[in-house]
Amino acid sequence: MHTRVAIVGGGPAGLLLSHLLHREGIESVVLESRSREELESEIRAGVLEQGTADLLQETGLGERMGRDGAVHHGINLQFGGRRERIDLRELTGKSVTLYGQHEVVKDLVARRLEDGGHLLFGAEAGSLHDLDSERPRVRFSRGGEEGELSCDFVVGADSFRGISRLSIPQRARAEYERKYPFGWFGILVEAPPATEELIYALHERGFSLVSTRSPEIQRMYFQCDPNDAADNWPDDRIWSELHARLTTDDGWSVTEGRIIQKNVVGMRSFVVEPMQYGRLFLAGDAAHIVPPTGAKGMNLAVADVRVLSEALREFYGAGRTESLARYSETCLRRVWRAERFSWWMTSMLHRFDGADAFGHRLQLAELDYVTSSRSAAASLAENYVGLPVEVSPAAGTPV
Ligand code: PHB
């Protein structure tokens, strides 16, 4: 089997890349280890930056998002018993869209199949070969049979635990990592929204977040032990923890409902440099992880494949290799800014074991500053709605 671009991993990065390439007349094959059902039911975050939502609209993927997604013009920060709003639209002219990542994945799968895309479910990539040649290969297994895909380029979009990143020789990559001593306990609840816009809250008992999926389903999280298990948390314990952390001085609290899903989300910051090796290009979680506090994960994946599809378009259209050569450099600038923002939001909003009362007072002072200074609020807002995507390196960047 031969294709131009072999894409390992059918999450948002791999699927969107395949879609963008198709629009440029560039053929690709996506190898996804999970079944379609498993892929489409994985619950992840749900905040789309304005640029992400715009790209989905512009490339014909916005129909359901436009109908079922909710545009939010602000977010709330809650601390010291009070709640302050950051007006994203007023501060930046932009907004965010609440629409679950698995809904984006469903839209992408449906569209790829409709367009006759080659999407192989249950195809487990085993190894990548000849990455430093012009004819790399991906070996994979599917339904008990071994297969091989030869191609012009391999794109590793197979998540943090995939094989692609590890296929770059150790001497040719550097990894930067920070682990956090906590996780997020996430629940999906059948209830009407208790708030119009998201609430990020810091409390002595730890962080919590009130988000939404639809008028009927709400998404909430609270900081927990990273090794905690869903079984340790019967529903009434969850509700008393959320009420303890979220009830405000004026008596507002979250609305209870039937809990239909519980999971523990790990928290880490991670970047591999560079994001390319020979004819292998990494995209999304395969190359970088952010803690979910900044709501950047999927948006970074989308930004990567925008840059990559543009570089591949230049390669196939005009034989130009400059943008491909600078893919990693172009992406990493944005990646590190999102890493900084996600780390900063995480540090400001979580309880750190062993931190003293001074540390907690500093967090409150920071939240007070961010919600009372227009410049500080604008800085948060412009990062939250998404920094502009540069599809080629900034002028003056040394090669
Ligand atoms: C979510 O709705 O799942 C969500 C929202 C905001 C975040 C993280 C997750 O920062």
Put the structure in a nutshell.
The protein is α+β, with helices and mostly antiparallel strands and 399 residues long. The protein contains 12 helices and 21 strands.
Explain what the structure shows.
The protein has about 400 residues and is an alpha+beta fold. It has two domains: about 1-45 and about 100-175 and about 275-350, FAD/NAD(P)-binding domain (3-Layer(bba) Sandwich); about 180-265, 2-Layer Sandwich (D-Amino Acid Oxidase, Chain A, domain 2), CATH 3.30.9.10. Helix content is about 35%, strand content about 30%. It contains twelve helices and 21 strands. The strands form four sheets. Strands 1, 2, 8, 9, 10, 11, 19 and 20 form an eight-stranded mixed beta sheet that branches. The chain has a seven-stranded mixed beta sheet with strand order 6-5-14-15-16-13-17, with helices on both faces. A hairpin with a 4-residue loop joins β15 (about 210) and β16 (about 215-225). α1 runs parallel beside α6 and α8 runs antiparallel to α10. The longest helix is centred in the last third of the chain and has 23 residues, at about 325-350. P-hydroxybenzoic acid binds near residues 198 and 211.
Key phrases:
single chain, about 400 residues, alpha+beta, FAD/NAD(P)-binding domain, D-Amino Acid Oxidase, Chain A, domain 2, 2 domains, 7-stranded mixed beta sheet, about 30% strand, globular, binds P-hydroxybenzoic acid
Element layout with pairings:
Blueprint: E1 2-8, H1 12-23, E2 28-32, H2 36-41, E3 47-48, H3 50-58, H4 63-68, E4 70-72, E5 74-79, E6 82-87, H5 88-92, E7 96-98, H6 101-114, E8 118-121, E9 123-129, E10 137-142, E11 145-156, E12 174-179, E13 183-190, E14 199-201, E15 208-212, E16 217-224, H7 235-246, E17 258-265, E18 268-273, E19 276-277, E20 280-282, E21 288-289, H8 297-318, H9 322-325, H10 327-349, H11 357-372, H12 374-385
Parallel strand pairs: 1-2, 1-11, 2-8, 5-14, 11-20
Antiparallel strand pairs: 3-7, 4-7, 5-6, 9-10, 10-11, 12-18, 13-16, 13-17, 14-15, 15-16, 18-21, 19-20
Helix pairs in contact: 1-6, 1-8, 8-10, 11-12
P-hydroxybenzoic acid binds at residues 45-47, 198, 209, 211, 219, 292-293, 295.
